[in-house]
Design brief:
The protein has seven helices and eight strands; from the N terminus they run βαββαβαβαββααβα. The protein has about 260 residues and is an alpha+beta fold. An eight-stranded antiparallel beta sheet has the order 4-1-3-2-6-7-5-8. The two termini are about 25 Å apart.
Length: about 260
């Protein structure tokens, strides 16, 4: 069980059954949102970086940089603040930081109730079926001044939509239960090259890895979700946890029936 939580595609076993624990559904689900042209990238990211540590756990602030943003012509940034709270009043208080966002938005949506399936449909238009994907990611706690030049290069080289960059103010808790998962940091950055036709492979397939490689010196590792281990091996668990995973693999899968990760740090 320790290894199953965080070993990702390198897990040396088969999961045959899940036991789910239910939690109360929040009484209020909603969303606040704003979009900006790419020229406002520095102002928007400085604001998000500054407010990240103080944002309540009931909100998952995300910045999405792409060529498809409502109310903006050309490349831009969409600021998304989904809120899950027990009342509209609590949600309004939690999302109050959005009032301090930079001025000049192309489109803005104040906090409004929103069904979960509406949120899901909005997100999934960036991850269509029957497309080709090349992705990469990083955890980081680097200062915003160090990150901005790389983020600006990403914005200026965006492939056509639905390719995009995702920034999440993660700010993890100080402690987690014992498990293989052991790397996370203040900020999560992921790049998604998404395209339809094989003839565009050469133009788009290397975009995510190229920019994550350039920012790797500012990262503390990667997440085993949008990894690119075949093209860019990177650190995905703490060193002690990787050693324990190797020992467990040797004990439970001595014959090597299960494939390990596609790349090792």
């Amino acid at each position: 069980y320790w290894a199953a939580r965080g070993a990702g595609p390198g897990f040396f076993g088969v999961i045959t059954r899940f036991h789910l624990q239910l939690h109360p559904r929040p009484r209020f689900m909603g969303m606040a949102m704003a979009t900006y042209p790419l020229r406002d990238l520095e102002r928007v990211f400085r604001w998000a970086h500054a407010h990240g540590p103080s944002i309540p756990d009931s909100i998952e602030l995300m910045l999405l940089v792409s060529r498809d943003n409502p109310g903006v012509r050309g490349p831009g940034i969409t600021v998304l603040a989904p809120v899950f709270e027990d009342s509209y009043g609590a949600a309004t208080k939690a999302a109050s930081f959005m009032k301090q966002r930079p001025r000049g938005a192309g489109m803005s949506l104040p906090l409004v109730p929103m069904k979960l399936d509406w949120m899901y449909r909005g997100v999934m238009r960036h991850y269509p079926d029957e497309h080709r994907y090349a992705v990469d990611n990083m955890w980081t706690h680097a200062p915003i001044d160090a990150l901005l030049p790389g983020i600006e290069r990403i914005g200026s080289t965006l492939p056509p939509a639905p390719s995009h960059m995702l920034w999440m103010n993660w700010c993890p808790p100080k402690e987690r239960p014992p498990m293989a998962f052991s790397l996370e940091d203040d900020t999560y950055i992921a790049l998604y090259g998404v395209w339809k036709n094989a003839e565009d492979d050469a133009a788009i397939a290397g975009w995510a890895g190229e920019h994550m490689r350039a920012l790797a010196h500012l990262g503390s590792g990667i997440q085993l979700a949008d990894e690119n281990l075949a093209q860019r091996p990177a650190r995905f668990v703490a060193d002690a946890n990787l050693a324990q995973l190797d020992a467990l693999r040797a004990a439970h899968d001595a014959a090597g029936r299960f494939h390990p990760w596609m790349g090792r740090p």
